[in-house]
Specification:
Strand 1 and strand 2 form a beta hairpin. The mean pLDDT is 80. It is built from six helices and ten strands, in the order H-H-H-H-E-E-E-E-E-H-E-E-E-E-E-H. The protein has two domains: 144 residues, no CATH class; 101 residues, Beta Barrel (OB fold (Dihydrolipoamide Acetyltransferase, E2P)). 60% of the residues lie in helices and 19% in strands. By secondary structure, the protein is an alpha+beta fold.
Length: 251
Amino acid sequence: MKTYQHILFWIIVYGSLTLIFANWFGGHVEAFYFVSLLLPVVIGTSYFFNYYLVPRFLFTRKFRKFVIYSLYMLVVSLCLELLASVCAMLLIVYFGINRAGPLVTDVFTLAVILYFIVLFKSFILLIKHYFVDQRAIQLLEEEQMKMEAGYFTVRSNRKNSKITYDEVIYIESLADYIRIHMADGSSITSKEKISRMDNMLPESFLRIHRSFIVNLAKVSGFSREFIEMGGKELPVSRTYRKTVIEKLHKD
């Protein structure tokens, strides 16, 4: 989740709990102060569970440690809830509020509310992870299909030309056309968009400039400003520089 999504989520939780607890306290102001004391416990428990325990132990199949640390978290969070309730009672006495409401001393109900919020947030994160994983699997499958094909097809001179990946040194954009520079020194011109080629080619090809896509297997040298291949130096634009350097160093 992005920062603004976290903030929006907790604002909604804050407002919802204030409205719910207002019936117990007989006023929104009293409920607001009580939720202000309780919410830090809820937030801390939620982030510790969802962003530490779950990814570090549950997702890595360390179930025993996950259960043990979850129990520790349960005890600590309940103690903190009890402390928040005591502080709330002291504030109520200090301000002379006549009706505190049984919720202040009902730790069981507070625990149910706390863990409902924690688990609800876990549910949201699991759904998000599911769709992210599905997208990653889809991208891997598409990449595998591209590599298994071993070639791509472009329209040139009124016919479809089948070009294997190993034949290509680099692809150059010429406005509405592209020129595919081949390993044998020849070239093929096609009325294609370089952006479409970038999406169609596998990860063994890398876009280094708005006008160039290179075959990584054909790169003979590189720097931050240019890539050397086929006896030529092709410029690396600022837009793609970081990705290009990381990719070439990784390979």
